[in-house]
Amino acid sequence: MKTGTFIAGIIGIYLVSGMSLQSAEETTKLHARSGSKMRIEGTSIIHDWQVESKIIGGTLDVGPNFPITPGQDVKPGKIDVHGVARISVRSLQSVEKNGSHYSDTMDDSMWKKLKLKEFPNIFYYPSELSLKEPPKSKDAPYLFDSKGDVVVAGVTNTVSMPVSVLPMADNKVKISGTLNTKFSNFKIEPVYLVPGGTTFKTADEVKLIWDWVLAPNKSAAASASK
After folding, report:
1. Distance of CA 130 to the CA centre of its chain
2. Could you report the per-residue pLDDT of 33-53, keeping only the tens digit for each?
3. What does each C-alpha distance from 45 to 49, 100, 196, 202, 203 come to in angstroms?
4. Within 13 Å of residue 73, how many CA atoms lie on the same side as its CB?
């Protein structure tokens, strides 16, 4: 091999390695933290109903243009995001409007319809964020259009919805969104609820309202602040 060709090859490897390291350094991995929650709201021929989970697990890899600190300058356009939000089906429980538990029987019926034994988790895979509106103040959220895949009972739907990203104290970030969908989109028959021995059917339409709180690991956050 000629010396010039060998040197060029070494330089090429060095440049590619440098680009890979730079790309890795520009990506921040966020981990789920306490304070997350998801609420599902629907109605029936008798009354409205709601279920909640106070646990959302998972991680999110974000590019350098993702707002992690209040007042951060975010350029218009798409932001690279990859990751998964995970909700245990068993963590979903029926609640009264005031948040107190509603019915064990309703919980069992819901878990059965969501195919708990076969698919114990609900997943959301975000794939795209695009800045819709910058914050109006340092304490206001960033408003984005988002796209991703929701997996319920083993059925995947690609969904689009507006989300807000609110940088908080301690390097935490709260991502919030609302998704209007239908049981039938996931091949689920509207759930039959049986509280107190009464059987009735819910409407097909449901609303998912969620807050996902994340933060980098403490060591990563400390390095970023230096």
Report:
1. 15
2. 999 999 999 998 888 999 999
3. 11, 22, 16, 7, 8
4. 0
**How buried is 173 (Cβ within 10 angstroms: 0-12 exposed, 13-18 middle, 19+ buried)?**
buried
* Integer CA distances (angstroms), 209 to 33, 137, 156, 171, in order: 17, 24, 18, 23
* Residue-range domains of the chain with CATH: 28-225 (2.40.128.110)
pLDDT > 90: what percent of the chain? 60
Q: What is the pTM (predicted TM-score) of this model? A: 0.82
Residues 13, 21 contacting (CB under 8 angstroms) = no
Q: Report helix, strand or coil for 156.
A: strand
DSSP 8-class letter at 139: T
Closest CA to 181 of 86, 42, 38, 57: 42
* 6: Cβ contacts below 8 Å, ≥ 6 apart: none
pLDDT of residue 147: 96
